[in-house]
Design goal:
Elements (H helix, E strand, L loop, with lengths): L9 E6 L6 H11 L11 E6 L5 E4 L5 E4 L11 E4 L7 H4 L5 H7 L7 E5 L3 H6 L7 E2 L6 H7 L4 E2 L5 E3 L3 E4 L3 H15 L1 H11 L26 H8 L8 H7 L4 H12 L3 H19 L4 H8 L4 H12 L3 H7 L15
Parallel strand pairs: 1-2, 1-5, 5-6, 6-10, 7-8
Antiparallel strand pairs: 3-4, 9-10
Helix pairs in contact: 1-6, 6-7, 8-9, 9-10, 11-12, 11-14
């Protein structure tokens, strides 16, 4: 008789509140509805639920949606995601839960992972789940959110924040980044990258990357840094200098650095480190290369350098990461979060 535990997909419950934004409601279904294991089994099961019995839920568009599950579905979830809503009432105005919403949230089991997209963070905050912790929301709403919840350490300059059992994200597209991050945290970079490719979005934008605040759309007549980034991605294993990247766009180092930060949100050096960490993660998951070989292929030069960068980025050593995230393996959702 096999001693292996029975396979069960990770259950994600998406809480649909009146005034929800249809785009953001659809993000978890798109991202978590795609990942599969080596045997072709879906790794997640996604269910949408309401705080009321099954029925219609208003959106901010010219249509309602029909939700088939009530709040009881929250009791079965491993992860609960709260997308943005424009009709939070006293939650938004006074920072307190309605009786109906509080009763719905009471169904959530202790230890369930919680996440919010954009103004969905108000629900987590009103429930007292973010006191004393860092959190983020859409940059345009951050100052008001901070005034309403002074016990929370609001960071308006990041895409998302991972606190292990509670995650918060900025608006709209940052919700995609957050969900991809959770897939990456659960099952590794290879599976998350595959989902990103199928969704036609960048495979990885670091949570600490800046939100795009008050930055005009680049003039199409101006040179960009796209070619330099593509050039660098094909040479991560080489020692790359900032001047080499700038030369690809025929720019001075100063101009290139400014333009790069405007377009990408981080410095060229930070971006290179992010890409090398992602490359190392992929190689550790999908190949049998030694740690020294992975370090060389990813451009870290030495195993010690790679170990330091992975420890900083992920909180684990290369060997521990490989052990946790072998391609197709089942993983602990908290293994990389330090919880």
């Amino acid at each position: 008789m096999s001693s292996e535990p029975e396979f069960r997909p990770h259950r994600v419950a998406v809480l649909a509140l009146d005034g929800l934004l249809p785009f953001e409601l659809g993000i978890p279904h798109r991202i978590f509805g795609r990942p599969k294991d080596a045997e072709g089994r879906l790794l997640y099961e996604v269910v949408t639920c309401s705080i009321r019995p099954p029925g219609p839920v208003r959106t901010d568009a010219d249509f309602d949606i029909q939700v088939g599950s009530g709040p009881e579905a929250l009791a079965t979830a491993d992860t609960v995601i709260i997308p943005a809503s424009y009709e939070l009432g006293p939650v938004f105005e006074e920072g307190v839960l309605t009786d109906e919403l509080a009763a719905a949230l009471a169904h959530i089991r202790p230890g369930t992972r919680l996440a919010s997209i954009c103004t969905g963070v108000y629900v987590l905050a009103a429930a007292g789940l973010l006191d004393g912790r860092p959190a983020t929301t859409h940059w345009a709403d951050a100052a008001r959110f901070q005034r309403l919840f002074p016990k929370i350490k609001v960071d308006a300059d990041v895409l998302f924040i991972d606190e292990g059992d509670v995650l918060t994200s900025a608006g709209v597209a940052a919700g995609i980044d957050l969900c991809l991050h959770m897939v990456r945290r659960d099952h590794g970079a290879a599976i998350a990258n595959d989902v990103a490719r199928r969704t036609v979005v960048p495979p990885h934008r670091d949570g600490g990357q800046a939100q795009y605040i008050h930055r005009p759309v680049p003039d199409p007549q101006q040179a960009s840094t796209t070619n330099a980034r593509a050039w660098a991605l094909g040479r991560l294993h080489e020692p790359l200098q900032l001047r080499d990247m700038a030369e690809q766009e025929s720019m001075s180092v100063r101009t290139f650095t400014r333009r790069f930060r405007e377009e990408v949100g981080v410095s060229p050096g930070q971006w290179l480190t992010q890409q090398r960490v992602e490359r190392a993660r992929y190689l550790l998951e999908s190949t049998d290369l030694s740690v020294d070989q992975v370090a060389a292929e990813a451009g870290f030069g030495t195993a010690q350098s790679m170990r330091q960068h992975l420890q900083t980025a992920l909180g684990v050593t290369p060997t521990s990461y490989r052990r946790t995230f072998r391609a197709g393996s089942q993983t602990d959702v908290h293994a990389i979060s330090g919880t």
